[in-house]
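Dear colleague,

Following up on yesterday's call, I've attached the two folding results inline so they're easy to grep. Please treat them as preliminary; we haven't cross-checked anything against experimental data yet. The first protein's sequence and structure tokens come first.
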Amino acid sequence: MLDRTRGRASGAPALMEVVLDAAAEGAIRTRAARRLGLPDAARVLAIEGGAARIEATGAVPEHGRVGVGPLVPVLELPSSWEAARTALRFAADGTEQDPGARVVHADELGGLAVLAAAVAPGTKPVADVLALERARCAAPWVLDTLVTFASSPNLRMAATALIVHHSTLQDRITHVEQLLGWPVRDPLGRLRLRLRLQLALALRRLHLHS
């Protein structure tokens, strides 16, 4: 019955498909989970390319982008799978063109997860995202500098992470602000500007991984 109702896969892939299918009856999902030898609680990992992996320990692959769903009872694994896929969209390639964390946990996204529903294939990028793209085309170091700056407590710590002198980073930030057309640092509005920058970077990544 599992093979007949859940696609053409057989064996473990078919059982995985059933366990992660919210439309499948609870009893059927419980039976499939038992046949897979799953513990009472587990989490789902969304792997770059569309694959799913169920883990009890939270171990993640060493390569590629990964979204990690929350730890839930086995019957709630479909919700962990959905959250993992959302988290995967926020995961970066870790390259100069897409810098940032390669592994993203859904539990740590907070309100950012709401953005994923607003950015679908074909969604027009907002002005700040377009500004980021123009800045990236003007200087290859822009995105890595902004991601590090946005995630660091202060300029000196950002400079240390980037392995540049803090005066060099100050010059870079000044240049970036000119490219973007809006400031990213202001003692009176630091929180607001950091939030704007974080949102722009998050939206850009959602467009990249729609």
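Below is the second protein, in the same order (sequence, then structure):
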Amino acid sequence: MSDIITLATTSPLSDRLLAMNESATIAMAKKARELAAQGVDVINLSFGEPDFQTPQYIKDAAKQAIDDGYTFYTPVPGIPELRQAICDKFRRDNQLEFLPNQIVVSTGAKQALANAVLSLVNPGDEVIVFAPYWVSYEEMVKLAEGVPVTLVGTLENDYKVTAGQLEAAITERTKLIMYSSPCNPTGAVFSREELGAIAAVLARHPQVYALADEIYEYINFVGEHASLAQFAGVKDRVITVNGFSKGYAMTGWRLGYLAARQDIASACEKMQSQVTSGTCSITQRAGLAALRGGRASADEMVTAYRRRRDLVLGLVRDIPGFNTPTPSGAFYIFPEVSAYFGRTAPGGTLINNSADLAIFLLNDAHVSAVSGDAFGAPECIRFSTAAADDKLVEAFRRIKTSLGKLGKLMKNEE
């Protein structure tokens, strides 16, 4: 008699993994690539990635680093020269004083954010997440077994959460707030006055920390960038995250960093030491060159991003049912598109929500975007404007044509 092998019917995967959602931006970009591999001309507006090449002087520094033999392990929090350059950057751009031992360099700003969340959040801690938010914030909180508490900014306030909303949401279990400015996905930028009001709230709740994601700092169309850590009363409870991907067009290099109070920085270093150790030695030398080179190359890219923003805003004004605030930074538009919910696409498919609309636009217009539910705003959809002008013009021409197939808008809309 042969042995009988019984296969387990339950998943061997951990509960924490099963509870985690896949990154929606990465998932949509994957679908777009799969369609393109079939020979379809897809215009990808789903990924938050500059379409510019990394500036040549940064590439040259990386090549030189290879020739000079920078091929060994680095200290977990980063090479000393880079950490000092980051301190110099904070002093120059943000009027913030940090010591190198308060800086932790990571494999992208995403790892810096995860390090901070995992270092601060205990099971059951509440983490207030300003929405619309970047897709990974809530998932990081879940991974730490925290409880995400979503605060949604209104369209009338450019999706920015107010100090009053924050005050009302804080409980005795609140441990952390998370936000980005300039914001992914909305492009909204908190002013110094708005952050000052938020700092005043935090000052009244000394158990609450703040994780400020400033990765889009240089892509700002309204002037001076304000940092929450600039307010003395809360500076020691603010963890500031930044990186090189957006401002220096270095997405593939994977280089980010955080600045925090000494004990928090040390905790993040400890966390990183058990996961990845120090990031790529060559990348760090490239990052050092980027910072020493100033922000002239970033400013050139921002000129293009501003032009593209204005181009796209002009294009979407001709699309009925798109309610689109003007972004003050980053390289996205985030229109409210609920006027199309309940419509039927050719073939009978019902558009129930922004996820359905994003799939319809991918299959019909061959333009990829990301549904707003991934950002905590299910009535919206995100388009990246980090593409060439001709691609943007063609993309929104296709979008307008495809949306026209869904029929007329509701009677109370123009």
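For the second protein, one point worth flagging: Residues 296-316 form the longest helix (21 residues).

Best wishes,
A.L.
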